[in-house]
């Protein structure tokens, strides 16, 4: 049924390919020159192209152009209207506003070309603290589509956005095809494509490498198709997070098919907030023919998602998850817990179908396993791991391991420098980038407090690591706290570490080195 969403779009493509005598509006004829700000020239060209009574194309030729925020607003008399970007549109550093380019209230838009939307976001990532603080200033996106209908976006590249790369808001029947999205794995909140309050959206044949979700489907969406997307690095493909905002409504009809995830921190995921601000149903969510390559947490339903402790996880989520399928998912897991269904205690997940799962894990954390709580499921075909063979107690504390993983990575490295034992099988960077770290403690380098906090989380021992590793971690944390107590004196005091006597100043220098190595300000 969701394939029907493509039919109006295919008709549009056919129309666009046969149009003769289009009017061309080249920004260079309006005064645009490479290596200068073309904001006004682009606005003038758009005004005339949009007002044209015949099909028109706004052309940005090859070259590098500076651009402040530009709002290309309809409705337009020209139907269809094409924006062909062959050059690079470069945002100013420390930019503000909603986005580099905004498209609003347009029907039958075609955005195409081999060009690049360059957000120059590296400096902005240092200021992006929305993952830590509810009250924050959101940075601009690269491209935002608002109230766009019957349109296509193809062949463009989005580079180093400050915030989301591409945002679809209140759109209908829009297809993204052959799009490339690139940002560092250390870039926080740089979702590749974020969809909200939209319907009949298709994301096809797209390559996404970023520091957050490759694709995220928020609240109030229906009939979303994600096909042939290659994701990695990043946080995988997510439905959610859901329930954070009061005006969210139901999500229904999301299909993720024939996608490949490589070295991502999560695989295919449904995530909802506990103590959610809204109550609705998320239903008919389907993941099929997915390849995982060294993916942490390949299959997840997590109804205890809580970014940076911005919620009350003692109150169950009010999002009802219904009719979900995971079929023909294969490849390798970077963590021993490959399947995790942690649903709301008040509203258990229902109609969860798991079929033909074949995931391998070759690490040292123990055998590959699954973990389940509050879920009604059926299984067919191959099951590796055995799904819900171990069911978490209903009253168990949150089994979201992200916080635990992120906190332990730094303790692991600290313990290793003190002569401690082996590290977790996957790297600390993958752990820290899962983005729910108690950042305030780490930034203050309060290892004593952090160690005590993590020890309280050992009730989640089956989340990610084997029991032997947890015992080992407890020993190292005790050693770490002993070292912290010894290091509480003045700069002249010393502590024994790995056969050496180190001053507090030397320990601080070691911690500073570790902060730089971890990328203290890029934890998302």
What's the CATH topology label of the largest domain?
Pectate Lyase C-like
Q: Main sheet, how many strands, which sense, barrel? A: 28 strands, parallel
Q: Give me the CATH architecture of the largest domain, please.
A: 3 Solenoid
Beta-strand content estimate? 35-45%
Shape: globular
CATH superfamily of the largest domain: Single-stranded right-handed beta-helix, Pectin lyase-like
> Structural class from helices and strands?
alpha/beta
Fraction of residues in helix: 10-25%
Task: State the main characteristics.
Pectate Lyase C-like; disordered C terminus; globular; 28-stranded parallel β-sheet; single chain; 30 strands; two-stranded antiparallel sheet
What does this structure look like?
The protein is of the alpha/beta class and 524 residues long. It has three domains: 1-171, Pectate Lyase C-like (3 Solenoid), CATH 2.160.20; 213-400, Single-stranded right-handed beta-helix, Pectin lyase-like (Pectate Lyase C-like, 3 Solenoid), CATH 2.160.20; 402-518, no CATH class. Helix content is 19%, strand content 38%. It is built from nine helices and 30 strands. It has helices at 6-18, 39-51, 122-125, 402-417, 428-432, 439-443, 447-456, 467-486, 504-518, and strands spanning 23-26, 56-60, 64-66, 70-73, 81-85, 88-90, 99-107, 109-112, 116-118, 141-154, 157-159, 166-169, 172-177, 180-182, 193-196, 199-209, 215-217, 221-231, 237-242, 251-262, 268-272, 280-295, 299-302, 319-333, 337-342, 349-360, 369-373, 375-384, 494-497, 500-503. The chain has a 28-stranded parallel β-sheet that branches. It has a two-stranded antiparallel sheet with strand order 29-30. Strand 1, helix 2 and strand 2 (56-60) form a beta-alpha-beta unit. Helix 4 crosses helix 7. The protein is globular. Mean pLDDT is 79; it is low at 11-19, 392-501 and 517-524.
